[in-house]
Amino acid sequence: MGRDLFILREREYEAFLSVLRKLLSDACAKIVFLVDKNGTLLASAGDTAEFDTTSLASLAAGNIAATGGLANLIGEKEFSILFHEGERDHMHISVLADRLILVVIFDRRSSVGLVRLRVRRASEDLARILFSAEEEPEGGGVIEELTDADIESLFK
Amino acid sequence: MSFINYSSREINCKIVYYGPGLCGKTTNLQFIYKRMNPEARGKMISLATETERTLFFDFLPLSLGEVRGFKTRFHLYTVPGQVFYDASRRLILRGVDGVVFCADSQLTRVDANVESMENLRVNLREQGYSPEKVPLVIQYNKRDLTGTASVAELHALLNTRNVPEFEASATTGIGVFETLKAVIKMVLIEMKKGDR
Ligand SMILES: Nc1nc2c(ncn2[C@@H]2O[C@H](COP(=O)(O)OP(=O)(O)OP(=O)(O)O)[C@@H](O)[C@H]2O)c(=O)[nH]1
Ligand SMILES: [Mg+2]
Predict the structure, then answer these.
(1) Contact B3, A8 (CB under 8 A)
(2) How far does the centroid of ligand 2 lie from the alpha carbon of residue A140, in Å?
(3) ipTM of the shown complex
(4) Which ligand 1 atom sits closest to the C-alpha of B78?
(5) Statement: residue B183 has pLDDT above 50
(6) Does the pTM of the predicted model rise above 0.80?
(7) Nearest to B123 by CA among B103, B101, B156, B155
């Protein structure tokens, strides 16, 4: 852990997106999104306009972090699946590959069982994409060219 | 951990406001929220007790415009300052890119500041960071009150790394944006070093 840089490129992003879209329809969900453990939204599919996805991402990560803290206290590594049941909408949150959080919001057109089943499959696909992305040699470079003037311009 | 999305052309960074209970971390974020252009900020989320003490964190997302064709997004968090919330503080520090240490200038809070700074070092180390290297800015808050320690005294106690420091009065906003600007600069410069 510690400081490092996570770079998401076009190709992985598109690959994530297509898995999320498939999950959305296979699980009959309203919205699905993928977040890193620090709460940054990576990709989403579904009716995102209806929700504040930035806040959702940050709170989902906080939720996983808090229950992870609880898990450690009782000698568990992590609670890798959380399910929150609402009156109308429900939320299924799961950790994959130790680094990413997959959130599915659904209503009574779907069911926990179905969501859980489809999430398992999608998680494998997402993890595979993540690992293949990590195998690639680093090659960002854009930020390297950042000048003091660029940084200064943000505060105009 | 900074996060660069080449697809949506976004840079995301996480900044954490740290410091003893009641030093004014939440007040900093509230002021930023109030003064930022609504297009440049998202909703502020506060997970707080009924007496408005931070229970888990405050969260405020900002988008500050573009550099080199990349949108810059900064996620500001505060930790709960009360000593017994240490487990939560550790969680919030995960993946941090830059820290604002908010000190309470009141003489009665001198020890609390020192203790909190030490706690920050311990928790950073626990998350795998080297505490001497993490981008850090120090804010001496509540300068408007009487019965405050001098900046020189606070500097000697807290600013051993000699990082940028600012006097502030977060309730009226003095020093709030100067502090934010300084930490953002440090984070971007650090990220520049990391991106090779
Ligand atoms: N006079 C004065 N009061 C301040 C200043 N900044 C904050 N306060 C007050 O101090 C109190 C605590 O401020 P918060 O921002 O809630 O403190 P905090 O650091 O978030 O506290 P925790 O959430 O418990 O860690 C509030 O009543 C603020 O109005 C300041 O610059 N001057
Ligand atoms: Mg607070």
Answers:
(1) yes
(2) 37
(3) 0.80
(4) 20
(5) yes
(6) yes
(7) B101
